[in-house]
Amino acid sequence: MRPQSRLAPRILIGLAVIATLLMIVVPLVYIFAAAFAQGWRVYAQNILDPLTLHAIWLTVLVALIVVPVNIAFGVAAAWAIARFRFPGRSLLMTAIEIPFSISPIIAGICYLLLYGRQGYLGPWLEAHDIQILFALPGIVLVTLFVTSPFVAREVLPLMQAQGSEQEQAAVTLGASGWQIFRRVTLPNIRWALLYGAVLCTARAVGEFGGVSVVSGSIRGQTNTLPLHVELLFNDLNITGAFAAASTLTLIAVVTLLLKSVLEGRAR
């Protein structure tokens, strides 16, 4: 091998390592350094602050609601598209991709114009004492919107590649629809399903733009963890902001590890 041919890969690897250090490693290290800048006691006080704990609890609650719903929707949509031909199939495939094409802030504004007091459904909701915006339902709805494609996008290609021969064989043996799904379909897509669920969880936990529009950022009520980080920073509580951000960072690191493990198992 020529010296020039050996030099080029080394240069590219070196540039990749430098870029990774500057864009990922250094910011991560700085987050934890700033969070612990005043010691463990101050860090613990900021994390155990009632408003921070409520933000963490609300963020986890939203994820616990959103992820199972998206799993059910993603599997159902992937099953319908991969196994059946029906009018509107292409439209369904396009609709699944819409959240990737629209800014979350635009989605939040759409929900505001639909469910707000001056919105299309606002007067009816107010007359029946139903509150969607600036409450948990609005946060859940906008988070569902921005996270809806992840499971379907991971499961659908795998189901299309695998085909339906095994399921058809199960039908000829007298298996019911539920038995086919539980014993044939689900084992074949389990790693892609878990991978999509992990991505969905990470997106739900870190969502900021859409939630900031529909939640109102009410402290101790509708403030999720990303919004709480911003409010702490605006209050000049820098240590508290980085302490809360370190929680999001830990969630991201755990998600990345799970993602790597599931990618390996899927392969």
Descriptive key words:
mainly alpha, 0% strand, 267 residues
Can you give a write-up of this model?
This protein has helices at residues 3-35, 40-47, 50-83, 89-101, 104-115, 122-127, 136-147, 149-162, 165-172, 177-206, 209-215, 225-234, 238-266. Helices cover 81% and strands 0% of the residues. The two termini are 32 Å apart. Helix 2 packs across helix 13, helix 3 (50-83) packs parallel to helix 8 and helix 9 runs antiparallel to helix 10 (177-206). The protein is mainly alpha-helical. The mean pLDDT is 87. The chain is built from 13 helices and no strands.
Poorly predicted runs are: none
Please count the beta strands (DSSP E, at least 2 residues each). 0
Order of helices and strands: HHHHHHHHHHHHH
Helix content: over 70%
What sort of overall outline do the alpha carbons produce when their principal axes are compared? globular
Strand content: under 5%
Determine the N-to-C terminus distance: 32 Å
Q: Which secondary-structure class do the elements indicate?
A: mainly alpha
Number of helical runs? 13
Overall pLDDT level: 87
The major β-sheet equals: none
- As a whole number of angstroms, the C-alpha radius of gyration is 23 Å
